[in-house]
Design brief:
This is NitT/TauT family transport system permease protein. Keywords: Cell membrane, Membrane, Transmembrane, Transmembrane helix, Transport. By secondary structure, the protein is mainly alpha-helical. The protein has 2 domains: about 1-30; about 35-245, MetI-like fold, CATH 1.10.3720. Helices cover about 85% and strands about 0% of the residues. The protein is built from 10 helices and no strands. Helix 3 (about 50-85) packs across helix 6 (about 120-140). The two termini are about 15 Å apart.
Length: about 250
């Protein structure tokens, strides 16, 4: 797929969504407080742009910080598990148990322990993003052909050398996929966490606007968050294609 196609297809998809959106309002006579028209949302977004951008900066800071912390911790944990099978057998049930509960369920604990500032949001994002990266990293590190591992060991390579020269390069495509999924989850969790309790951020704006029955502002914040998510995901996909070019 060339560069023009990568741009044209998403634009075509957005145009189809816009057409269906406006047609649905006309055909089904949907109330504006449920589904406002796209021009009215655009006007609300423009009029409230400074406040929305300020909220977006807070949300992206929380999402980005949690993403980095969770991603690094997940890759390190996966490497430790591969190097130490006994540790994996002992700790894996705990990892699975912690992540079997929706991350938002930990919000009350995070808010009480870390407060309503950014720290609680970063912790929740790190937990959500980290598990997505961890699962992919584990699958990638363990998917290496055992024959290749045995061959490398026959040349005197130890566990660390095997990880560095064989398992980690082979796992890069899987890790990159996990990182792409995690970045979108990070923004979602950050917004949801802000809606549950925060001093700033897009989630707080959405929560307050809902309380004030200002649904145009709600939709403006949603559109801005969606646009930021798509742009960041596109950037990560581009980086992925450049760094993991062989997959």
């Amino acid at each position: 797929m060339n560069a023009l196609s990568r741009i044209a297809y998403p634009i075509a998809g957005l145009l189809v969504i816009a057409f269906v959106w406006e047609a649905s309002i006309l055909v089904f006579r949907i109330p504006t407080f449920v589904l406002p028209s796209i021009p009215s949302i655009a006007v609300a977004l423009w009029n409230d742009l400074p406040a929305l951008l300020a909220g977006l900066r807070v949300t992206l800071y929380e999402a980005g910080s949690g993403y980095v912390l969770g991603g690094v911790a997940a890759i390190v944990l996966a490497l430790v598990f591969v190097l130490m099978p006994l540790v994996e057998r002992a700790a894996m049930p705990i990892v699975v148990a912690v992540n079997s509960v929706p991350v938002v369920a930990y919000a009350p604990v995070a808010l009480v322990a870390l407060g309503m500032g950014s720290a609680s949001k970063i912790a929740m994002v790190a937990l959500a993003a980290g598990f997505a990266v961890f699962v992919n990293a584990m699958n990638g590190l363990k998917a290496v052909d055992p024959a290749a591992v045995n061959l490398l060991r026959s040349f005197g390579a130890g566990p660390l050398r095997t990880i560095w020269t064989l398992r980690l390069p082979a796992a890069l495509p899987a890790i990159a996929s996990g990182l792409r999924v995690a970045i979108v989850r990070s923004i979602i969790i950050a917004i949801v966490a802000e809606m549950l309790g925060a001093y700033a951020g897009l989630g707080q704006i959405i929560y307050l606007a809902t309380q004030q029955v200002d649904f145009l502002r709600v939709w403006a914040a949603i559109v801005l968050a969606s646009a930021a998510s798509m742009a960041i995901y596109g950037l990560f996909a581009w980086i992925d294609r450049r760094l993991v070019w062989w997959k």
